[in-house]
Design a protein that fits this description.
The structure is a homodimer of 282-residue chains.
Chain A lengths: L5 E8 L2 E10 L4 E9 L8 E7 L8 H5 L2 H8 L2 E5 L38 H16 L2 E11 L1 H12 L7 E4 L9 H11 L11 H4 L9 E6 L3 H4 L5 H11 L3 E6 L6 H19 L1
Parallel strand pairs in A: 4-5, 4-6, 6-7, 7-8, 8-9
Antiparallel strand pairs in A: 1-2, 2-3, 3-5
């Protein structure tokens, strides 16, 4: 039943509560998981909500275990919501066959091409259905939402923010796929989910979106220089920064010497991202 | 070949380096893994070494991913070494059949009973062979070592510290199996590894060791009250604290309301444990 939340697991953490929920998604026509951390202060008042979008192969859980985010959420007085990276067990043939398409690889788009379009509506899920659901059910301040993410989730965060400048007060990303139409895995995903006509890809390409939309807030991006996906041209943060400059979009792109693509990189710099969002949320 | 270190993985993390090593252990007569985090300051000088022993079913990796320890190690200027929880792939029949005996469940004892005794020499490995190896190979201050651990690893840390009061400057534990001879899983493991005669168990039971040995440093123990293993009598921290009091051993046992047995509990309180050890190591 749409809207009904099933609590699967719950842990006390840094004085707050980390919960794993499951619910039926109307958008994705299936059962979806997400995690929600409520800081101690949420007992007494509505708190700002920071969205985190994960990367390829991740679930709603990885971030909660690896990023060290709960400590900071408790300190900054933010809730953090993290959706799964795709629908699962949809019955779409081949959904589990590739690590970069189908399960774990929804790319935060609303698919328009069969067979994916019947379930893979992650953009609407992440920007509409899930925010409505959590804001209805928890002490969250709907006017104070920001978004960040890692890799495919960094791409998702940039796209969600640029397309919804009033909904999200700020955005940041760790090693995002920053210009997906120009990368192999972006092209593969967009072809499968959106079709061959590249004019339909622009709505899900942060670098393209900057042609028509900029944000008032500065964008923060961290990128490790030892990240093999970066070295192989799968992320392209400099291209994105170039477009930002042309568009007059404030951006801080930080190249972090010797860091790779892992959560050891994310955890090292996540405090700076909380600080970044705190400028706009507090 | 004994003493040869094979680097399997390495990540930059909080300005330092997290490495996963494999080597041949003479004690355990087989290939063993351990992890080592060196803080940024280790580039210039020898640093104190904090040992972490993990719980049942864990590998050398879990702690590095889940505990949030690297941030603190960089801040406090400590290295952290974490061994695996048992030998693996030894060929001992049934070694992988139980989650609480054999692989992942070495209990930090030197087994005396066949078939385990041929490989399961975790006490000597953790207190002798591995310290010698890492101190020879890395910029570590041999005179500044402390030890902590979680669950089975909390038991291990208490035993190692009480039996080697000059080697380890301090000890702490998260939800330790604090009086293993009085718990079901302690009894199962000790019977298998040490035999039926309980007089041989005392050397690996922290509560028993206090009859003959106390430490100058205070012992810190954190225990979550919502921990099902605690509730079911599998940990017995209060019994341990009682024996400490009788023996004149300083102890701080903190019951943490609503926390469970997970790393969400460990990560919440690990900063206090660093602070505890810093009193003795800095």
């Amino acid at each position: 039943m749409a809207g009904t939340l099933e609590l699967e697991k719950q842990h006390r953490c840094f004085g707050g509560t980390l919960s794993y929920y499951r619910h039926f998604s109307d958008c994705c026509q299936g059962s979806m998981q997400f995690t929600l951390y409520l800081p101690p202060q949420a007992k007494d008042k509505s708190v700002p909500l920071l969205w985190y979008l994960s990367g390829l192969t991740c679930t709603a859980e990885n971030f909660t275990v690896k990023a060290g985010a709960q400590r900071l959420a408790a300190e900054y007085d933010f809730a953090i919501a993290a959706p799964d990276t795709s629908p699962r067990n949809t019955g779409i043939p081949g959904e589990d066959e590739s690590w970069d398409l189908g399960s774990g690889a929804g790319f935060y788009v609303d698919a328009t091409v069969e067979p994916w379009s019947s379930h893979y509506q992650m953009y609407s899920y992440v920007t509409q259905e899930l925010p409505t659901l959590v804001i209805e059910n928890f002490p969250l301040d709907a006017d104070k939402q920001s978004i960040f993410g890692h890799s495919m989730g960094g791409h998702g965060a940039l796209v969600c923010a640029l397309r919804n400048p009033k909904k999200y007060q700020s955005v940041s990303a760790f090693a995002p796929i920053a210009a997906p139409s120009q990368t192999t895995w972006g092209q593969n995903a967009f072809k499968a989910y959106l079709g061959d006509d590249t004019k339909f890809w622009a709505a899900y390409d942060a670098a393209e979106l900057l042609n028509t939309q900029t944000l008032e807030s500065e964008i923060l991006i961290d990128q490790g220089t030892a990240d093999s996906f970066y070295q192989d041209g799968g992320l392209l943060p400099e291209k994105f920064a170039e477009v930002c400059e042309q568009a007059g979009q404030k951006i801080k792109l930080r190249l972090q010497d010797g860091y790779d693509h892992s959560y050891f990189f994310v955890s090292t710099f996540i405090q700076d991202h909380f600080q970044h969002h705190a400028q706009y949320l507090q």
